[in-house]
Task: structure prediction
Amino acid sequence: MERTHRCGDIRVEDTGEDVSIVGWVHRARDHGGKRFVDLRDRAGLVQVVFSPEETTEFHRTQDFGREWLVQVTGTVQERPDGTKNEDLDTGDIEIHASDFEVVNESEMPPFSLDEEKRNETREELRMEYRYLDMRKQRVADNIRKRHAFLQACREYLNDNEFLEVETPYLTKSTPEGARDFVVPARNFPGNFYALPQSPQLFKQLLMVGGMERYYQVARCFRDEDTRKDRQPEFTQLDLEVSFMDQDDFLTMMEELVTNALAEAFRVEIETPVDRITHEEAMNRYGSDRPDRRYGMELHDVSDLVKDSELNIFSSTVESGGVVKGFRLEGHADDLSNNDMDDLIEFAQEEGAGGLIWIKLTSEGFESPVESYLETEVMRSLISEFDAQAGDVLFLVADDIRTANPVLGALRRHVAERFGMDAEAEGYDLYWIVDFPMFDEQDGQVTPEHHPFTMPKHPDRLENIDTDDTDALLNLDSDAYDIVLNGFEIGGGSRRIHDPDLQNTIFDILGLSEDEVDERFGWFVDAFQYGAPPHRGIAFGIDRILMIMQDEPNIREVIPFPKSKSGYDYLTGAPAEPRDDQLDGLGIEVTVEKQDEE
Ligand code: ASP
Result:
């Protein structure tokens, strides 16, 4: 099919040209005996005028329905003054059709493709007809920006001698800590492949193999409950390098990201970006990924309240805990007592014993504990937080490991409630470094990142009692995250390349030799062959796109997304296997099929 121009590309400079274009009928209306049709292709919309005088077989244009695909030949003409449309790139011109051909008719689409009506369509329906949904500019733009961002990353990495390498999808369990998706293997009855949660082990083996710099746009599969920014399959820009220290590596990675953001989104972010330790982030914001644009830093007021009559303050400080809090500017009048009860409940669900709120008023202050708060204490709190009438102080008295994250969660919750995150301007891009080495879950020490992460001070491990959980939880690692506007957009670490140290870590994690052998023996063996020092990172492409495109969730930026519960409305997956698929696999399905709600 021959076309001379794309619909959305034609400009006033083309006036007088004979053109041939192909596009979908976006909208059609009659006016003064003529028919005005907006034709749309990937480049955008253009107005076509069909008239009895100019257009062969004009009467047939009456049949045009929405989304019919029509080829038009005609002449570009400048629109008369007063009819130009500034909102449209092609708004200065229109095409006067001399001839046309219906290339393909269309059923009436199940929902409107008008951009303005986007929120009126159920998301399930949009997913079912994603090929129609992506005819809308906003979805199409997300797909284009995804391409632009990835290409810019590739270009930077290629220029810096990275090799793009693919790693297997049918593999053995990988250690990111989520549940695996498994695939039954017909040739090995009773055995299953696991889909990779990340290319972690393979990229490390590429370093052992001497590849030095690797990257991949990798699909990762994690069988987790999906959330706003999670999907069962998602895309990482995955990287690994040998022989680079943390400083040089983070500098290179922030250059990669800021370059690609500039290329794809025309956004300038100044470098170097901040590097703050995990400890500092937790102390100042109660989070390992704070959005710093809306302030509300946490203050430790233990010293100010330690002698207060309010027992919860004095006794918490006496027993080694802290009293910390933050100030919400204004909004005292927007929070009723019921709202405050909800916030207390929120803090309790996050693990705090309670939450104390103090509203500053023009007469003084208001709080459930107001009769216990001495004037002196109040005065010092007001000065510490620089609080004014109309502000609210939120305080938590607890041990620091509880107080910080509870306040961090509350800070985010309150900011979301008052739209402070949405209103915040600019981009807050920075590194969090020195993550703890270990976490504790249900009494068991677990890796904070993954079991192959290098401790920041390996020598400290030598003198540690590996049963001393508190001492272990205080160890730092050479692990880092990169954060953008309150979302973790990437994370990585230096890896252990010394087999003895790796065995010590396995031991701390309670992994027996047999278990290690069975799960990662193939991987650990490689480190006996002169493994180089190496480190890496993986960036969450979907999240980056979601943030930059200002979308409410990552499904909007994934070309073919799944629902919140992991259902694919387009293909109807997951689905029951056919009997002939099960034959030979030695698998019998014993549960009843459940339908997507
Ligand atoms: N594989 C890690 C992850 O998916 C990233 C890394 O350590 O490079 O979080």
Q: What stands out?
A: The chain has four domains: 7-104, 132-269+427-434+478-495+534-590, 292-423, 438-477+498-531. The pocket of aspartic acid is lined by residues 176, 198, 200, 491-493, 536-538 (CB under 6 Å). The chain has 18 helices and 22 strands. The mean pLDDT is 94.
